Automatic annotation (TrEMBL):
Stored HAMAP family: 3MGH
Enzyme Commission code: 3.2.2.-
Protein name: Putative 3-methyladenine DNA glycosylase
Keywords from the UniProt entry: DNA damage, DNA repair, Hydrolase
PANTHER family, alphabetized: DNA-3-METHYLADENINE GLYCOSYLASE (PTHR10429:SF0)
Provenance organism: Neobacillus piezotolerans
NCBIfam families assigned: 3mg, PRK00802.1-2
Leading EC class: hydrolase
GO molecular function: alkylbase DNA N-glycosylase activity; DNA binding
Length: 204
DNA sequence: CCGGTGATTGTCT
DNA sequence: GACAATCACCGGC
C-alpha cells in the first residue's frame, strides 16, 4: 500500500517485496517493464515507469561484466542477493542494474529507459534539457535525471531512497538484441533486450 | 605503475 | 555517421 507523507507534497509508492526479485533473470527483465524506478533525495522524489531493460547472465554471457564468473571490486555486488543495485561508470555516465540470479549467480538487469512519472521538473533541472523526451530515454540519461550515482552501489531496491514499485502492466512487450555490445561474439545475438512496444521513451 | 577498454551521450559534419 | 569527453576498472609488467 502507498503511504502518504504529509511533510512532503508527494506520495511515495510502496516498494515491491524481496520475492519479486527472485524470479529467473529473463522473466525479471520482462516483469520490470511497467514498474516504477524511483529515487528520493533532499530535492524530492524522481521516478518513472521502466520501459526498456536488458538481461546480463554471467558466467556464460560474454557481454556481461561477470563473464566466466569474473569477480572483482566492480562485479562483487552481482554475486550478492537479488534486488541489490549494481551501479557502475560508463565513460562519463553512471548506469544502473538490478541484481538477480540469487547469491553466487552473477546476473543482472540493466535499466535502459524510463518514462517520467514523479519529479519531472526536478529531472529537467538535473538534465538541463527542455524536451521531455530527452530526459530519461537512455541508461545514462535516466540515472542523471533520477539522481542515481555510485553512492547507490549495493543498495537494496526494496526500500527508499532507491527503490522499485509496482506500476502499470504493459499492453505488449517487444524483444531484440542488446545495444552496444558488438565485441562479444555470439552473445551479441541473444534476444535479451526487452521494451514496452511503441513507448516513445525507449532508447534509439 | 601504465595503457587499453567501454552495457553512453552530445556535438559537429 | 564520426568522434571526443573522461574515468573507473582491470590486466600486465
Amino acid at each position: 500500500m502507498s503511504q502518504e507523507n504529509t511533510k512532503k507534497n508527494y506520495i511515495i509508492p510502496a516498494p515491491v517485496n524481496q520475492e519479486f526479485f527472485e524470479q529467473p533473470t529473463l522473466l525479471l527483465a520482462r516483469s520490470l517493464l511497467g514498474c516504477i524506478l524511483a529515487k528520493e533525495t533532499r530535492d524530492g522524489l524522481a521516478g518513472g515507469y521502466i520501459v526498456e531493460t536488458e538481461a546480463y547472465i554471467g558466467p556464460g554471457d560474454k557481454a556481461a561484466h561477470s563473464y566466466l564468473n569474473r569477480r572483482t571490486k566492480r562485479t562483487e555486488v552481482m554475486f550478492g542477493e537479488s534486488g541489490l543495485a549494481y551501479t557502475y561508470v560508463m565513460h562519463t555516465h553512471c548506469l544502473v542494474n538490478v541484481v538477480s540470479g540469487g547469491i553466487g549467480k552473477p546476473e543482472a538487469v540493466l535499466i535502459r529507459a524510463v518514462e517520467p512519472v514523479y519529479g519531472e521538473g526536478l529531472m529537467h533541472e538535473r538534465r538541463g534539457v527542455d524536451q521531455t523526451i530527452k530526459l530519461t530515454s537512455g541508461p545514462g540519461k535516466l540515472t542523471k535525471a533520477l539522481g542515481i550515482t555510485m553512492e547507490d552501489y549495493g543498495r537494496r531496491l526494496t526500500e527508499p531512497p532507491l527503490f522499485i514499485a509496482k506500476g502499470i502492466g504493459p499492453e505488449s512487450i517487444s524483444t531484440g538484441t542488446r545495444i552496444g555490445i558488438g565485441n562479444s561474439g555470439e552473445a551479441k545475438d541473444y534476444p535479451w533486450r526487452f521494451w514496452i512496444t511503441g513507448n516513445p521513451f525507449v532508447s534509439k
